[in-house]
Specification:
The complex is a heterodimer of chains A (452) and B (169). In chain A, 38% of the residues lie in helices and 13% in strands. With 452 residues, chain A is α+β, with helices and mostly antiparallel strands. Chain A folds into 2 domains: 12-269, no CATH class; 306-449, Sulfite Oxidase, Chain A, domain 2, CATH 3.90.420. Chain B is flat and about 75 Å long. The N and C termini of chain B lie far apart (72 Å). Classes of the chains: A alpha+beta (452), B mainly alpha (169). At the A-B interface, helix 5, helix 6, helix 7, helix 8 and helix 9 of A face helix 1, helix 2, helix 3, helix 4 and helix 5 of B. The complex binds protoporphyrin IX containing FE (HEM). Protoporphyrin IX containing FE is lined by residues 66, 69-70, 73-74, 76-77, 87-88, 117-118, 121-122, 164, 167-168, 171-172, 174-175, 186, 189-190, 193, 196-197, 353-355 of chain A. Residues 66, 69-70, 73-74, 76-77, 87-88, 117-118, 121-122, 164, 167-168, 171-172, 174-175, 186, 189-190, 193, 196-197, 353-355 of chain A line the site of protoporphyrin IX containing FE.
Chain lengths: 452, 169
Amino acid sequence: MPASDPAPPAEDRAGAADGYGTPRRLWQGLDRHRPPGADAVTRGWRSPLRGPWLTSVFGAVLLATLPLVIITGLLDYAAYAPRFGQAFPTDVSWLRLPYFDWPTRPSWLFRLTQGLHVGLGIVIVPVVLAKLWSVIPKLFDWPPARSVAQVLERLSLLLLVGGILFQIATGLLNIQYAYVFGFDFYTAHYFGAWVFTAALVAHVALKLPRMVTALRPRPGRDALRTPRAATRPEPPDPDGLVPVRPGPPTVSRRGAVALVGGGSLLLAVLTVGQSLDGPLRRTAWLLPRGQDPGAGPNGFQINRSAAAAGIQAADTGPGWRLTLHGAGRTVTLDRAALLAMAQHTARLPIACVEGWSTVQTWTGVRLRDLAALAGTPDPASAHVRSMERSGLFRQATLQANQVLDPDSLLALRVNGADLSPDHGFPARIIVPALPGVHCTKWVADIDFRTDG
Amino acid sequence: MADPVARLRATYGAGPRHVLVLLLCFVVTGWVVLRLAGEATAWRMLLWFLGAVIFHDLVLFPVYAAVDRALRGVTRTARRPAASGGDGSERVRLAVLNHVRAPALAAGLLFLVFLPGLLGWGAETYRAATAQERMPYLLRWLAVSGVLFLVSAVALVIRWLRWRTSERG
Ligand code: HEM
């Protein structure tokens, strides 16, 4: 066996030599009063795989992926253009990224960020569970703490573990339309994200040195090359992850890592389809957005049906008018007038905040042409309202860059056919890289504003 | 004990970096708690936050650990000392254990992640969002799980045949 680890750096060793903080009598007393069964529990942990190496491997994977999940989540909030008061939750004070104009290029930007957010969020589930498995003996440690520092750290770990499980649970329920939790998803998931992020930053700041030490390559101890029969417990570690009475190995460390990685791969294979078009879409076999949306030019996913939005045939018939408000001017157009204007065709993704997306070919009038028609060729923003009578997303404000992009359309047709009622007939907004919920359907009027 | 850092270590139990990062963590959390305290559903959020931890630590973990223990019992792989390299029959029993473990874990994972769809929860929201009727995917999950068990079994048989030929040869 190679030499055991060097002593941990002083920073990690809590307090005085024996580890007790002030008041010492309290912590020592706690240590002495072991509840019945505490020793049995300690001896009950048998897996010889548990130890700093395995925990650090899962930790390193999460350290590489979680920041991406967090950043793409915060970008989702930014993509709603919160400066117009239209991101939920609306009042987040200083807990947000600085305001910036969400770009329209590349057109697949939101498709990528939100697809990554939801996709990675699903794919890391096995790693999170494995990481928790690797450290679960710590939960039943006695004494639970030897100092105030340890009490506080344990509290922060509650926030860390509660945070990630809360985010995963609410996220998974959201994308599968099961709002069983009975609170507002946006509020919970947004603020939950900050609690989790703060706890993660603290955890990484405190544990990073340990992880680096545990993963340092050591001659003769390459865990990824060691078969099961040669798998041995690690030497006792200061954190007490290595069991005091390890059992025989039933799987090698590389086997355990492969098992977890296999779980992630399986989830990835069953998820990626919701961002693909064509036959591969059906591979998202257990997700709502892998289902067949029907054939024809309008055969692609929707996020809100005309029926659910309360749109009636009478609203969208020949009597429908689009009203444009500009600098001191109001213009009213029917669908024939819109079709008589210059038509532009663009292949653009429609990407939902729930992570799925699809690319379609849209035809309609450029928003910047409509802005010019309304006498506001250089608007600061545009406020779009739908005919929907209720719902959070029956209106949206577009930034100047989103109005002026040459591919930003008031779409009338898709894939060569009229929009179907569920896709927003008579007219809908489609803007590159804009979250699907802001690509307003069943548009009633657009107000081009010059005052930001 | 003149050194303030040494004093901090002796009383608080860790160094200044520890104080600082935890302070940051609790300031953010405290601010979120204050902000959410006015929400009518704040208690529910707290319940789900703590409930998620309790569910994982005191339900999910004990259940899968117990299932694994039972599996090790059935395959008689739980009791051997670590030292011996293991005879042939032990190798086979361990292989059986792991070829059941892997698909079982995968099936459990899929069940957990896709639970709402498998059980057909939220049918109304689903209809409003997709204009389609929700059909529970339980059978699909059974099919995927069945395939995983089958693939694993086939792989086990192949391994076993290889061992036999190499032992003879
Ligand atoms: C690992 C921790 C996670 C963090 C820190 C996180 C963070 C965030 C943040 C900050 C937002 C923006 C919320 C808003 O706009 O109000 C968001 C949105 C979202 N997240 Fe997560 N998330 C996590 C995990 C997940 C998981 C596992 C899923 C699902 C599989 C998920 C699904 C979603 C969805 C669907 C949205 C879009 C909400 C919307 O705009 O309608 N998240 N996430």
